[in-house]
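Slide 14.
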Amino acid sequence: MACHQRSTSLPSLPHSIESNVEQELLGLKACISLPSTTIDTMCDGLRRLGDAYSCIEEMMCLPSNQAGLSLTRQRKMMEEELDRSLGLIDLCSAMQESLAELKMIVQELRLVLKRGDGVALQLKIESFIRLAKKTQKPLKKATSKAVAEGCKLAMLMAEAREMAVYLLESTSQLLPKQIGCPSVSKWSLVSKRFQKRKVACEEQQLQALERSMGDLQDGVEFLFRKLIQSRVSLLNILSL
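Slide 15: predicted structure.
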């Protein structure tokens, strides 16, 4: 892979930090790609990727890398990554807004469930699924852009960016699967005794779903903050 090829122009990055980032990105992709992936997996992945960005930011601040940016080609590659980081920040911001809306729908679902309104329940579930699928659209339009060899730091930033898009896209694909769409007729036909037990069970499931949406919000916000910090650091370095 490109991430294992060292630049011949810049001094080597400290091996421990570089190796940690490479291993984390590879391990994260393998984890997210598993069929058993869950929302908890995505939450953990968002935090792991945020930590990887902290390591990349640490690399940026190394004197050897700052000196290397005096070379025209390396500087241009980092400036291109700086521009591309805006698109990723926008994707995270859009995901944050969608997750906030999804969490609100789940809260409304819990109220509707307590009222026993089967029609309203189904409409709210359909709204959740529709919005969850809508989160996939901007991510499908996000294209991965390869970075030419020659600047190890820019290559690692590109791989982290691609991993972030992949992680957000995988999360968006999981969201519609988190809730089922019940039949109104089945809801009205079950006995009152069974229906009460069913409501209690579904209430617990909705509570868990609300927590999951909150955890995802926290994870995306964590990554968002790390992306902003990384971008600010790079801006400051390029302005020297």
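Speaker note: Confidence is low (pLDDT under 50) at residues 1-13, 183-194.
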